[in-house]
């Protein structure tokens, strides 16, 4: 088979494989970006060439299924996925929740187009492939190759849409780095323990994030309830402080709870945690007492993805609550 013992580079878009005129690079142009000693180990495959803003969670699930087939059915040595940086952390985090294979799955991207003078396409593609070939990434789950290092998806946060250093690893150090001048991959540590969830149905479609802000009212939440809220698969509430929301939200959230729609509470900050420290109308303590599920240290974006996976695994009640806490 074409992919046996190869590293499959799956092109899921991103500026890393696009010119400034939005044209996707040809296979010949892509091979030219790679060092000669790794070209023979690589095969390119193409996926949906469209803006990340059009992706759905179910599309992302289909991508993961395709990647799984490259390894499970076709014997690929590993897979590298290119995508836009705006989706890199979320897409890789989703994959990491369900990836149960030993060969590496590495996501990468670039903030600049491939033909830009500042492009990192050559460097990122080369490093990702070298890491996949090294053997040091086997059994470490899904990985991100960015800024001359390899990170776990749960530790990567995007903080800028224009700065080369727009991805920040937090709070953990890299799993490995690339030596100079050889560019070989050096493993530094293992990622934290991963709990792999087996999904039994397609990922949930309708899980919005509702963010509380200073001086906010209940207009958006009421608008959500005025529509067919029965179509909601779940809801993530991104709260102030420890996870607090305006007091006017409380009766509306109670209504959703009575409808048995799973609601997850997250702190809206990149390095936040839900804490039941004070008890007043709209406090995190009250919301958790009402039956809303804590996202713990997950960001709202991670909580949404984890909730989608949990629901696709038919988790409910206490099982779902434990899963949202990483248990």
Question: Outline of this structure?
Answer:
The protein is of the alpha/beta class and 327 residues long. It has helices at residues 27-33, 36-39, 57-72, 85-98, 121-134, 219-226, 249-258, 284-290, 300-312, 317-324, and strands spanning 7-11, 42-46, 78-82, 105-108, 142-146, 149-151, 156-158, 167-169, 176-178, 185-187, 209-211, 235-239, 263-267, 293-294. Helix 4 (85-98) runs parallel beside helix 9.
What is the makeup of the main sheet? 8 strands, mixed
- Kindly estimate the percentage of residues that lie in beta strands according to DSSP: 15-25%
CATH superfamily of the largest domain: L-asparaginase, N-terminal domain
Oligomer: single chain
User: What structural class do the secondary elements suggest?
Assistant: alpha/beta
- The radius of gyration over CA amounts to 21 Å
Write down the secondary-structure element order: EHHEHEHEHEEEEEEEHEHEHEHH
Whole-number mean pLDDT = 91
Through-space gap between termini: 39 Å
What's the number of helices? 10
**Which stretches of 5+ consecutive residues score pLDDT under 50?**
none
- Report the strand count: 14
Summed up, the domain count is 2
Looking at CATH, which topology of the largest domain would you report? Answer: Rossmann fold
């Amino acid at each position: 088979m074409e992919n046996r013992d190869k590293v499959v580079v799956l092109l899921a878009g991103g500026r890393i494989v696009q010119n400034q005129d939005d044209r996707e690079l040809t296979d010949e142009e892509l091979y030219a970006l790679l060092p000669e000693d790794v070209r023979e180990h690589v095969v390119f495959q193409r996926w949906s060439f469209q803006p990340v803003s059009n992706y759905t969670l179910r599309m992302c699930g289909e991508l993961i299924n395709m990647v799984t087939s490259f390894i499970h059915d076709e014997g690929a040595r590993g897979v590298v996925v290119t995508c836009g940086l705006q989706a890199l952390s979320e897409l890789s985090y989703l994959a990491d929740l369900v990836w149960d294979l030993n060969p590496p799955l590495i996501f990468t991207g670039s903030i600049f187009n491939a033909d830009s003078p500042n492009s990192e396409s050559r460097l990122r593609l080369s490093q990702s492939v070298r890491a996949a070939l090294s053997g040091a990434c086997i059994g470490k789950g899904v990985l991100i190759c960015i800024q001359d290092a390899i990170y776990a998806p749960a530790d990567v946060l995007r903080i800028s849409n224009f700065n080369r250093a727009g991805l920040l690893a937090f709070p953990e150090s890299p799993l490995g780095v690339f030596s100079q001048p050889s560019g070989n991959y050096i493993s530094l540590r293992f990622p934290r323990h991963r709990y792999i969830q087996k999904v039994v149905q397609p990922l949930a479609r309708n899980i919005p994030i509702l963010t509380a802000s200073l001086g906010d009212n209940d207009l958006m939440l009421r608008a959500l309830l005025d529509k067919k809220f029965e179509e909601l698969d779940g809801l993530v509430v991104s709260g102030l402080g420890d996870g607090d929301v305006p007091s006017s939200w409380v009766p509306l959230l109670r209504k959703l709870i009575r409808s048995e729609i799973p609601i997850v509470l997250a702190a809206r900050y990149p390095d936040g945690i839900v804490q039941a420290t004070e008890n007043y109308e709209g406090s995190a303590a009250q919301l958790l007492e009402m039956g809303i599920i804590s996202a713990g240290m997950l960001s709202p974006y991670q909580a949404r993805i984890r909730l989608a996976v949990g629901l696709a695994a038919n988790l409910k009640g206490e099982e779902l609550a434990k899963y949202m806490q990483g248990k």
